Predict the structure.
Amino acid sequence: MSNNFFSSQNKDNSLKSQHKNLKDNYEQIFIEAAESIRKELDAFKPENPCSNCNIKDCKIEKKDIFAPYPSNCKYKDWQIKALTFLTIDYKQKLKVLYKNIMDKKNNYSCGKCGACCRLAASEYSYEQLKQRANKGDKYSKEFISVFVPFKSEDDAKTVNPEYFELLNKLVEDEKIYYYYCPKLNGNLCSDYENRPNICKDFPHNPLKLLPSECSFNEWKNEISHEAMLLKAKVDIIEFYKGKLG
Ligand code: SF4
Ligand code: SF4
């Protein structure tokens, strides 16, 4: 599989096509990640401890990681080791993966198109963002310090129809709220020196859908495989923790 889903061979580089490629490839990446984690956990698996086991009436046939082993079974030790590995060692690995992805962003810079200031989306309404900010949520506080809601969805759509449609499609049945920043002057920030961290750090999520104008799409293209692999690993580990914890 190519490391870059949006290679030059892919002539259709529209947002829609990029989104479809991401979805199509995630399933395969998820399977690869699950297989690689399974192999790592299998390294702790004891070799046939049942041959000299004194526990009577053990009816567990399939000795997989999720079986309900009795407390003094060697496979139970395996489960405990696996859980510790996933919650401590693996967490550290994921942090390194995330850092590598974000470090690569430093090779790219903002193209000053203003698209992210002109149309931003949130799963929260303005009221909800205010409530979250009052409860100490830093992101919400910064967000409402610059962004204001559009009067209507039509107004938001007019600003960037392609980006609007795709954001809508992404959330499917869930509600999404649209915002703009009144500090944008032409394509530039009129309060650049005082802009909050959410603006300085944008885009802060490697899987975030970006406007097609955004120059950080090149970074996203470069790291899309790593980012999806990271997401798959996070999801799989949460699953294991839920089952083993
Ligand atoms: S404060 Fe400046 S950089 Fe931030 S969203 Fe507004 S115009 Fe853009
Ligand atoms: S959309 Fe991307 S390139 Fe355009 S202003 Fe925002 S961060 Fe910069």
User: Anything to note?
Assistant: The pocket of iron/sulfur cluster (ligand 1) is lined by residues 117, 146, 181, 183-184, 189, 191, 195, 199 (CB under 6 Å).
